[in-house]
Amino acid sequence: MSKNESGSFEKESQKKTLGVSVKDVESLLSVSVEDNVFEAEHNLERGLKQRHIQMLSLVGVFGTGLFLSSGKTLALCGNVGMVLSYLFIGILVGLNQLAMIELSCLMPVTGSYIRHGEHFVDRAFSFALGWICVYQQILPSEIAATSVVMGYWSDLNPAVWVTVFSVIIIGCNSYRIRFYGEIEFFFGVLKILLISGLIIVSAVMDLGGVANVDRIGFRYWKQTPFREYYTDGGLGKFLSWWKAAGSVVYAFGGVNSISFYAGETQKPRHSIYTAGKRIFFRVFTLYLLTVFGLTLILPADHPKIANTTGDSTGSPFVIAIQDAGIKVLPDIINAIVLTSAFSAANLSLFKTSRDLFALAAKGQAPKMFIKTNRFGLPYWGVIIAALFMPLAYMSTSSSASTVFGWFQNLTSSNLLITWISIDVNHIALQKALKAQGYSRDDLPYKMPFADYGAWISLAFFILLLLTGGYSNFLKGNFDISSFFSAYFVIPLYAVLFFGWKIFKKTSIRKSSEVDLQSLFKDVEENPEEIPHQTYLWE
């Protein structure tokens, strides 16, 4: 970590080498920071504390992708293949988030990477990304997921559960941000308990600690380590693993929510850094241990999950524990999985309203989305997001889990676009720092591997996006819904980007012209007192 200690940047000599003095630059920036980059943030209420941010990041990481759709991943690529797929995507996402956190600590604004794109790359880049994010969050995949989970207990029409949970979620997003933070904090505690419990239960089951159940050990790793699809042999195993890796993207969907709350957080830079630096630990401990445990206690050819359409009901963890004959526990776990789906749906509505706020702050969406009520709530964004919730009623006319699968595939492609954009933003920051005589050491917080990590994750995310629907190009495997969900986002992004670029005549920002001075000035004028470390939630 590199922290600016004083109000002076000591960059006078470096600026002169560029032929421009600090005073000249400051005169060009006669508009104050508050009236420029951070102006819109004053409309929001800073009601979130550091404990909220840390727990909200946890809520974002551990969602239905882990608890619900992991069964499909296991069936697709096998027990060993599943662990490798989560490890692979986890590393890429971790590198991507290091880049995002470093940039967000310099420019902590609501909408984070959307606003970063406008500031560092191109206004058209920001416009396209922002509306892609709205499209991504407005898809009610998590509401559909609640119908899948509720199907474990009830044969009621999924429309009942869609209605019930939609009303509750709208209510949670219609009051102060502090109220939202406390609700998600509660769900975060439940998720920690769930994850810890699943790891312990998996270990007990695997080691033969359950009555009338033999010790499993690594039996299923030997039985179904990898699975073959589309062709035989090593190529078939690789193709199935690569497809599974693409589906794992959905499981990490909420990880980039850490910096999204910047405009509504107390001490945003320190809070984002503190929460963000724990990403690797969470991914490689709780997350991977949970996946590892699942692969030990459930074979990839289990009849309830061994398909590629995602039509199994409930969580694979529940299925494994139920098969072991453990009473009551499956119902408890499924209930907590339900809260996870609800929490993720709650986050989606929240992010949609803030996406629209971020776009409106730069004139890329109607100004009504920047309006807030007396609680600092951008209410128009909440209303518009709520209007799209009825899309989840599609699960009433088709299998709820099938609809969930459609939404999941669409969301995965959108996530890849978002992560690619985050990497591009950070690369643009690196170039701007170099062009203007700064270095990453001048940033308020410096994350390890963020510079190289942005390039590495960018390359793989582009590859995953382009090959996400590769199975449709194999003979006899074309499916219009699969092809659409895998590739629709690419032409949509192109239309948004070039359409706005032509309409507004925007241009890509030169590295030497990126406004770094106002960002460093805000760091200097708004120092954050770092709280004393404590082992208690504050």
Automatic annotation (TrEMBL):
Any one Gene Ontology cellular component term annotated for this protein: membrane
Signal peptide location: none
Keyword Transmembrane helix found: yes
Lineage: superkingdom: Eukaryota
Transmembrane segments: 53-71, 83-108, 159-178, 185-205, 239-258, 279-298, 332-350, 377-394, 449-470, 482-503
Membrane topology: Multi-pass membrane protein
Keywords recorded for this protein, A-Z: Membrane, Transmembrane, Transmembrane helix, Transport
Molecular function terms, GO-annotated: amino acid transmembrane transporter activity
Occurrences of domain Amino acid permease/ SLC12A (ranges): 52-510
Gene3D superfamilies the UniProt entry points to: Amino acid/polyamine transporter I
Cell compartments where the protein resides: Membrane
Protein family membership: Belongs to the amino acid-polyamine-organocation (APC) superfamily. YAT (TC 2.A.3.10) family.
PANTHER family recorded: AMINO ACID PERMEASE, AMINO ACID PERMEASE_ SLC12A DOMAIN-CONTAINING PROTEIN
Protein name: Amino acid permease/ SLC12A domain-containing protein
Species annotation: Candidozyma duobushaemuli
